[in-house]
Amino acid sequence: MMNALNLNPAILLEIINLQTDIARQGLDLGGVMQLVCQRAGALCGATAAVVELAEGSEMVYRAAAGVAQGALGLRLKRDGSLSGLCVAQDKILQCDDSETDARVDRAACRKVGLRSMLVVPLRHEGQTVGVLKVGAPHVNAFDAYHAQILGLLSELIGAAIYHAVQYESSDLYHRATHDALTSLANRALFYDRLRQQLSQASRACSNVAVVNIDMDGLKAINDKLGHRAGDAAICQVADRISRELRQEDLAARLGGDEFGIILCGVRDRDGVGSKCHSITKAIGAPFEFEGRALRLGASIGYAISPEDGQDMDKLIELADQAMYRVKHARKAVAA
Fold first, then answer.
1. Domains defined along the chain, listed by start
2. What are the strands, taking DSSP E only, across the chain?
């Protein structure tokens, strides 16, 4: 690990604690990147932190925190961006004012309200595979001290990449975009694909449905039988969701007991409602864990583009609201 002697002891303690938290993430590379993003922003006094991975000619936001969180899954051209230049030159780059720095994508900076940036390379097997970046809304926000902090954090991500990729034959892309427990897409890939599908659907004048699923009763299973049973229930739900979908659709574990689905080329609202009913029925079938028959359930809500709008964040919000209406209705009936 790079020289950390000049860092404040409190900062070093935070980084040591972060290493412990990373160990708890196991081989969940997406979870590690998200965790480091959150801590990087706090340690550097930044309002935004992202991990971008280089994929072909693009840089893709695979983890994001702060004001950049809504950009998760965003794709930007490597050429003309500070992140792309960092990958090409394999060195730390600093921007003190995005309005006067010709290396940066000025429009992208304005969109998220950033004036200063600090970008450090992420390395795997001798190659620069992405960057860890922090940003702030005012000029001259970062210096060599922050670069040292970010360099240490980038090494933690690099180690996580190494261990995740070494564990199985799966490549870096798969590890960074899929949930370690269920092998479904993770939140970053879900946002990435949803952006793409909405763009394609707009050009083709077709419909896309966003579905939000929340498991019912997972806490009771965890409390009664422990987290092994809870993990088994999550995997069972993931498998049952996947079996109900077509090849062109996408299922993702968004976190904890929450799942998301992208249904492509749907005909109408009735068709989406029918599919959601089938998924609810499939999830609701009992499953056996170590000789015990356990009951599963789920609350499902959805929104359709373009009928409910074409803005990704708005569609997700509407699907979430619909899901909670279903959940509250189920609780009212049970009472």
1. 9-177 (3.30.450.40), 187-334 (3.30.70.270)
2. 48-55, 58-66, 75-77, 93-95, 116-124, 127-136, 207-216, 250-255, 258-266, 287-289, 292-294, 297-305
The pLDDT tens digits for 114-155 are: 999 999 999 888 888 899 999 999 999 999 999 999 998 888
With residues binned 3-state (H G I as helix, E B as strand, rest as coil), the percentages for the chain, rounded to 5, are 50, 25, 25
Name residue 35's amino acid.
L
Quote the CA–CA distance of 120 and 133 in Å, as a whole number: 6
Peptide bond preceding 306: is omega within 30 degrees of 0, i.e. cis? yes
Check if the beta carbon of residue 241 is closer than 8 Å to that of residue 283: yes
Predicted TM-score (pTM) of this structure: 0.68
d(CA 312, CA 73): 11
Give me 243's structure tokens: 């079996």
